[in-house]
Amino acid sequence: MEKENKKENDLMEKIISLCKRRGFVFQGSEIYGGLSGTWDYGPYGASLSHNIKELWWKHFVSEQENIFGISTPTIMPEGVWQASGHLSGFTDPMIECEKCHHRFRADHLDKKYLEQKKCPDCGGVLGEEKKFNLMFPVNIGSSSLSTAYLRGEIAPGMFVNFKNIMDTIHPKLPFGLAQIGKAYRNEIAPRDFLFRVREFDLMEFEFFLKESDWQKYFEFWREEMWKWIEKVGIDKEKVYELEVSSEDRAHYSKRTIDFEFEYPFGKKELYGLAYRGDHDLKSHSSGSGIDLSYFDEETKERFIPHVVEPSMGHGRTMLAVLVSSYKEDNMGDDTRVYLSFPPKIAPVKCAVFPLLKNKEKLIERAKEVYKIFKKEFGNVEFDDNGNIGKRYRRQDEIGTPYCVTIDFDTIEKDNSVTLRYRDSGEQERKSVDEVVEIIKSSLI
Ligand code: GAP
């Protein structure tokens, strides 16, 4: 058991170290000592992040007939959060040590510390459990200050725009409003790399429907979430559904399924699928005084639509993808590390190498090929540094699915290049046009 835990901690350490070493992820504001619960994405991390968001948007918005994308601010006034119930209900149970004043999530603390009321850090006495609100207040304006909040979830942006969308786009039920954007939570104890942070992107939509249809669409989106999990490169074997009990559900939810992932530090929530009933539109109708009901032209009925909400954390997607993709094997004489990202989300699609650095003709042709690929795929690298084996390893480590080498046969014989596949290490001779088609087809 201990050995098993060590292996898993090692995996987490390896992933964190690779992310830092290769410019995927850095501690937020690192040169100022770091701000806990925040992470900065370097060039490869930003590219991976962008590709995941783009793929999500394609899967859940552009390819759907009845989902509309919107984008709303991260700051919303107090009234929104009063109506939604976040000011009273968006809390976690907190316990503080009376001696060292470290704070802990009561529901995450080992039972033995709770029973003995003993601080796991200093052995001091633990105080009483309190409810800790996760919302970040902000003061708006320079003269008469008013309190607003950084959004703790992105869903209210969709609810407060329900009427705007009805009045401008006139959609019929069922339909969804989607967005990707930042959410902020003053987590008591941020931890486990990208897993529990204080600022993160959410990718989610509110699917408005008739009450009688909620089960049908709950099942429909549950299936779509499984398809997404596979598409983005999360190991399906490591994902489990959990029916969340009524005591553990969010204050707005009538039914929730969590999709849990087997992270190296344990099986924990990846995504959530919730049936929010008519809680939100009803609350915002009474909170704002604006009628947020829907008129059904066919039945001539007016009612408040109900909502099914698939919610997917972007940072947790990044982490689950990294854990699923991290591989070590033996290739040639050494052990190599590679990230087996699906080409669609890989930060770099292809790398181009001239076989030798000091042969002008090779460099010239390699630069031409690089430009062709760059125009086609954008994220392409040129590398003439060190031997070819080392260049392959560098690309493997950042998950580049294809490498192309320009050698003497390219310039003296048939213009063909060597295409090398990341996962198998296999190589074949292909024309530049053929390589373009192979890469293109893997990105559809
Ligand atoms: N609108 C629904 C909602 O916000 P949630 O379960 O509170 O539901 C949705 O959060 C998703 O956001 C989670 O399934 C998880 O992927 C992600 N998430 C929640 N808290 C997080 C945190 N502190 N750090 C990173 N991701 C988080």
Can you walk through the features of this model?
This protein is α+β, with helices and mostly antiparallel strands and 444 residues long. The model has no long low-confidence stretch (mean pLDDT 95). It has helices at residues 2-21, 43-62, 78-84, 86-89, 111-116, 155-159, 162-168, 214-231, 279-288, 314-325, 360-377, 388-397, 408-414, 432-442; strands at residues 25-27, 39-41, 67-69, 75-77, 91-96, 103-105, 130-133, 136-140, 146-150, 175-184, 199-209, 239-243, 255-263, 266-277, 294-296, 301-303, 306-313, 326-331, 334-339, 350-354, 380-382, 402-406, 417-421, 427-430. It has a seven-stranded mixed beta sheet. The chain has a five-stranded mixed beta sheet with strand order 21-20-22-23-24, with helices on both faces. It has a three-stranded antiparallel beta sheet with strand order 4-9-8. It contains 14 helices and 24 strands. 34% of the residues are buried. Helix 2 crosses helix 10 (314-325). The structure holds glycyl-adenosine-5'-phosphate. Glycyl-adenosine-5'-phosphate is lined by residues 153, 155, 185, 187, 196-197, 200, 202, 204, 269-272, 309, 311, 313, 315-316. Residues 153, 155, 185, 187, 196-197, 200, 202, 204, 269-272, 309, 311, 313, 315-316 line the site of glycyl-adenosine-5'-phosphate.
